[in-house]
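Handout, section 4.2: multi-component inputs.
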Amino acid sequence: MSRRRVTMADVARRAGVSPTTASFVLADRRDMRISGEAEERVRRAAQELGYRPNLTARGLRTSVTRTVAMISDTIATTQFAGEVIHGALDAAGARDHVLFIAETKGDPDVEAQLVEGMLDRQVDGFIYAAMSTREVRLPAALQDTRVVMLNCWAQGTRASSVLPDEVNAGRDAASVVLAAGHRQGVHVIGGRHITPATPEGVWAGQERMRGIEEAMAQAGTRLDGVAECDWQPADGHREVLRLLDAGTRPHALICLNDRVSMGAYQALQQAGLNVPDDVCVVSFDDSDLAAWLRPSLTSIALPHYDLGRTAVEVLLDGGIAPRVHRIPMPVTLRSSHRTTSGSPRPTVTPTTTRQGPGEGPP
Amino acid sequence: MSRRRVTMADVARRAGVSPTTASFVLADRRDMRISGEAEERVRRAAQELGYRPNLTARGLRTSVTRTVAMISDTIATTQFAGEVIHGALDAAGARDHVLFIAETKGDPDVEAQLVEGMLDRQVDGFIYAAMSTREVRLPAALQDTRVVMLNCWAQGTRASSVLPDEVNAGRDAASVVLAAGHRQGVHVIGGRHITPATPEGVWAGQERMRGIEEAMAQAGTRLDGVAECDWQPADGHREVLRLLDAGTRPHALICLNDRVSMGAYQALQQAGLNVPDDVCVVSFDDSDLAAWLRPSLTSIALPHYDLGRTAVEVLLDGGIAPRVHRIPMPVTLRSSHRTTSGSPRPTVTPTTTRQGPGEGPP
DNA sequence: CTGAAAGCGCTAACAA
DNA sequence: TTGTTAGCGCTTTCAG
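Output:
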């Protein structure tokens, strides 16, 4: 962009060696023997001239560019994006790679366009990411490409997936409630997210519910109710109010995200019920909201950073064999529940589970 | 990455023309006359073979890569990042460019490293972004480079800046309050953000306060008080409580962000005061919170998307002359204030102001 | 152990 | 109007 950069030929000339020799020492290749003295001269020359390799030229020759493209449907709206990118960036940087970002807006045409553009630039690999965990169709151009799927998966694809471990998160949520001494009166607000728009529910909801119900069963008890609804504050508010109006007096609420919890808090407050003394609340997402609410909210986070980081690690370090990597979801304990005296903290031990090739989730 | 791509030579051969001819038509260059027939043949051949140019090779030859690097101090934590990237992406995409993202974490060493890495990859230009609006020092390696500064500025630099128009946002906030009929009892919570950690305040606070005070003066009145404090929910809560305890009964609160407003709401509610009947509240940021709170909050947004978009536009389309571009901050009117009957909406007409070269903000 | 030379895919002088 | 040729900066046979 500015004035002429110093090239490898310059270094070789100053060091009094051939370009070949310079190339070998500057690329740190030890498979061809170079005299210690020549190596030293080259290194000094490079140092003195402030030599930096032109990665475009190297890329043209070797077709490796130390570049990865992250393509996602939406990057902006949700909190999701930031930390995912952050993690991906750290992992890429640690491996001397650099990250392209692109957004398809869910449009297959722009998606194809974008992928082509990245291929034209000879990226070394792709992270194909979805903002909400779900099954997707991998674009044709990515089929025979180094790619890992982030927060999504595709049937019949030779690509690894990196997913949040929602089932264990569900178990952990139930564990918190159980450890607080509640075996009865446990209600879930939000459920599988079965709504007119998503009659099957959403994956996160299904998985969390599976974990919750398993943990309850394992403790020899069961949920008193599940309110299926959208996951906005108004929904939490409405559903909790409905519960109370029906004369139900819940002891514990597991809310499917912090926004639902916020609505639940409002309803509880209206009804004059105290958190955590009258009702304990456990939530998912661990967004900023969880810390802002009073009392602060115990919540289980989506491991955004680790998802991004792991995806790049798998892409750059991982083998060829497709795998599903499940990333643990950390629990942050706050003030919206009480622990039974004597038991210091709920037993919360998230684990990473892995699946072998061939089986797509769930 | 996969099997051999079709090259321009392939296209030329199939079309029965020389590489030169193929190059001219495929690069859409009309400055050298090509026969319509040859052009047609080349286009068809390219089409049939599914030709795509190798941008790495082209970049090596021309040193333009249609690539821009966005380097920021922090990309993850704040909501800021997402929409900024979104805007930048849209502007870049519209110009057939692609976006590198990198994060310095505020460390000058990694910053230098990152910039070098981008330069090694022959990026066409840089967006240098800060997460909170402020003055920065442009890294040495970027000095003689095509760069625009996003949400920041540097003294004595030949680079354009893109900044939110906070002064007019302040004016707009005051206008909402005035249009609601409040000329007395108007208090600001948050102020310039003068705290032990930031004894001078922060730029956004200073600018907003300037706008607020100007608008009040213009209406022939003035603020009844400014609470200088941090901008977290707890601060809003504490300061409003303090106000009420001192026997003050505010009619309108201008809170410096939505989190402060959230705290203010809590305090008002404790005191049994109703929003907007007893106290009207106007806020900044227009985060998700603004829509979630009850009553929903009138708030003035940081124009994240437009900041990102404009920065890339200025970089790619703008002239060389350094400019400061001020991006209007949109007002979203909700339910936390009342308009005086008869006047339909507050007079809110944000404007973009521009400064000529030479004067750095503020 | 080192150097000469070819070539990655493309563009741009210069000739024809 | 078109073709020939050189070369962007680097890696990599293949001879020495």
